Amino acid sequence: MSVELDVFVGNTTIMDKEVYQLWLNGYTVNDAVKVRIEGGVMEECEASAEVLLSDTMDQYRTFQMCERLLHHPAKLANQLL
User: Fold this and answer.
1) Which element (helix H / strand E) includes 42?
2) Each residue of 13-50: pLDDT tens digit?
3) 53 near 36, Cβ under 8 Å?
């Protein structure tokens, strides 16, 4: 049995303002990806739709994990994410 797994490990949290706004506006991940594609992000970054979907899902996960801290920016600055 073969399993393929992509893993990214990093120590810097980057929040894309455009994706954050889409999340705040209640877009699903798939709808956010469509908006980003229509906005030309794939040409800017030379990324595939698969990479864009993965990036958007990662951003949404980050926003969900940080949601309580996003209500209190001063506390967010002191967190190790």
Assistant:
1) helix 41-45
2) 788 999 999 999 999 999 999 999 999 888 888 888 99
3) no
Q: What is the mean pLDDT of the chain?
A: 86
The total number of structural domains in the chain stands at: 1
Per the rule left: phi > 0, alpha: psi between -120 and 50, beta: everything else, 26 is: left
Residue 8 lies in a domain: no
Model confidence band, residue 75 (pLDDT cutoffs 50, 70, 90) = confident
Domain holding 60, by residue range, is 18-76
HEC letters along 44-69 = HHCCCHHHHHHHHHHHHHHHHHHHHH
Are 35 and 25 in contact by the 8 Å Cβ rule? The answer is no
